[in-house]
Amino acid sequence: MRLRESCLRILLTYSISRCLTGRMKDLRKLFLLQRIPYPSPVFRAFLGRLSQDIEKRCGLASLLQRLGANSNSICRRKIVENLIFNWVVKGARLRTRHRAEGQWVPFFVVISPTMHCNLRCRGCYSGLYSRQGELSEELLDDIFCQCKSIGNY
Asked: Which side of the chain, N or C, has fewer Cβ within a 10 Å radius?
């Protein structure tokens, strides 16, 4: 990553994290970030989509509003780093490269490391499976490394 992009990432992480207060009016401040010439077209497209969601008060804006209201500042910063920069920006580059090579790459990956959940949430698939079985730490580490290599963080 180039120096300019690294500096912008740090600045944007701080700016975005400060907008995650749980109030929609603070999320609207993210509109100002569209003026910053961040080199990633994926990030600019992400901000455009987020702007639409903020106007409609739905989708990602609603998720970020809830996360802002229910998490501390360190957690909010990590959400921005991992969700926005690793998955949206860095991950998109990797996913695009793999797709250009003719490989199918999932947009995201869901992992159930254990089948011990007993919540019985409506619509959840976990109640359909036996309660036995766990993924080992070694297997989980291998799965995470594979996910990262294809752009899923």
From this structure: N
Is residue 3's pLDDT more than 70? Answer: yes
pLDDT at residue 85 in the model: 84
Distance CA 127, CA 134 (A): 15
Cβ atoms of 24 and 61 within 8 Å: the answer is yes
In whole angstroms, give the CA distance from residue 83 to residue 143: 18
What CA–CA distance (Å, rounded) separates 145 from 147? Answer: 5
Identify the band that residue 30 occupies on the pLDDT scale cut at 50, 70 and 90: confident
Q: For all residues of the chain together, what is the average pLDDT?
A: 86
- From residue 102, give the alpha-carbon distance in Å to each of 1, 20, 96, 97, 153: 25, 38, 10, 9, 21
Q: Tell me what pLDDT residue 1 has.
A: 58
Distance CA 120, CA 151 (A): 31
* Tokens (6 digits) for 107: 């947009």
Dist. CA 153–CA 149, nearest whole Å: 9
E strand map for the chain: none
| Backbone phi, psi, residue 117, to 5° | -65, 135
